[in-house]
Design brief:
- The chain has a single domain, classed as 434 Repressor (Amino-terminal Domain) (Orthogonal Bundle), CATH 1.10.260.
- Helix content is about 50%, strand content about 5%.
- The protein contains five helices and two strands.
- Strands 1-2 form a two-stranded antiparallel ribbon.
- The chain is globular, with a radius of gyration of 14 Å.
- It starts with a strand and ends in a 6-residue tail after the last helix.
């Protein structure tokens, strides 16, 4: 998947937060966290909004776009 959430997990670590803190404060559910960790499913924009509000950051602080090989060649995948 071209979106990588490694920046999100690094941000949590830098701020001394655990995934449990996000679940306890009802910011994000376990399935969304697992989707971000594995990169196998898409994350809803409302989830990104909740995370940005909670962490006082921008979406680019949570994720980065890593193009597929096809995208690198100028092709679009649909």
């Amino acid at each position: 998947m071209p979106l990588c959430y490694d920046k999100f997990f690094l941000l949590l670590k830098q701020r001394g937060l655990k995934k449990y803190d996000l679940r306890k404060d009802k910011v994000i559910g376990m399935s969304a966290l697992e989707s971000m960790r594995t990169g196998k499913r898409h994350i809803d924009t409302r989830t990104i909004e909740n995370l940005c509000a909670y962490l006082h950051c921008q979406p680019g602080d949570l994720m980065e776009y890593i193009p597929d090989e096809e995208t690198d060649k100028g092709e679009t995948s649909q």
